[in-house]
Amino acid sequence: MTDARYPLDGRLPDMLRSGKPLRGLFNGLPSPAIVEMCAYAGFDFIILDNEHGSADFGVTEHMLRAARATGIVPIVRCFEPDLPRILDMGASAVQVPMVESVAQAQRLADMIHYPPVGRRGSAFSTRAAGYGAFGGAGHTQRSNDGIGFIAMIETPEAIAVAGEIAAVDGVDAVFIGPNDLAHAMGHGSDWNAAPVQQAIERGLKAIATAGKCPGIIALTPADEEKYGALGARYFANVSTSIITKALAQAASGGKEAQLRY
């Protein structure tokens, strides 16, 4: 367990290397209360979705505080230009969409880690460093050891080099985005189409062979079982889908509702 005095929760890299399945969810709702609820429900991690969600930086920072207070590991999905600010807020990891090459993965890994591991610029006055209370060499080491980088691959071109992306030093996990992959392959939203599933299988196996943690959307236990057999261990559901399904069931008097993503 990371020392609770520090704002940064550095458990994730060890969790990803543990070989154990991890369960979490994407959350695009700008609400610290949702973060707390997910922690109390027992999820291992939460992905604060700053790619498709509506939280601004201030709300994101409050959500990171809620995660630290309740013990759930907070990952932020964000674009490359936002990495410095997200990391300085105290994210445990960043999950970057649309990684398509080894060179891109290496550039991102360098941005996430301080020298001598990477090229991240130092700032010890931020929340991640306790506003200066925990800055200096100690914060640098804790960050390099404890901050995770999850590369998202979402195109056929990325699947073709999934193993090489996974092998980059500083990449802790590689997450396959099935919806964007299906669209990129010409199958619309049908990620259960046979060619898409075959691409997912190739990608998951390549990531596992490279010695890194494979990740994937898993909306049902059957999804987790199927992808787990291919090596996946980092499983993400979607908060709004879970909430919408529960609301639809309540509104219909308890009738089964379809889980949508």
Please state the average pLDDT score: 96
Oligomer: single chain
Q: Helix proportion of residues, in percent?
A: 40-55%
What low-confidence regions span 5 or more consecutive residues with pLDDT below 50?
none
Annotation, overall tally of beta strands: 8
Order of helices and strands: HEHEHEHEHHEHHEHHEHEH
Overall radius of gyration: 18 Å
Beta-strand share of residues:
15-25%
Write out the strand line-up for the largest beta sheet, numbering strands in chain order.
Answer: 1-2-3-4-5-6-7-8
Q: How would you sum up the global shape?
A: globular
Overall structural class, as computed from helix and strand content, comes to alpha/beta
Helix segment tally = 12
Description:
It is a single chain. The longest helix has 16 residues, at 194-209. Strands 1-2-3-4-5-6-7-8 form an eight-stranded parallel β-barrel, surrounded by seven helices. It is globular. By secondary structure, the protein is α/β, with parallel strands linked by helices. It starts with 11 loop residues before the first helix and ends in a 10-residue tail after the last helix. The chain has twelve helices and eight strands. The protein has helices at residues 12-17, 32-41, 57-70, 83-89, 102-112, 137-146, 156-160, 162-166, 178-184, 194-209, 221-228, 239-251; strands spanning 22-27, 45-49, 73-77, 93-96, 148-153, 173-176, 213-217, 234-238.
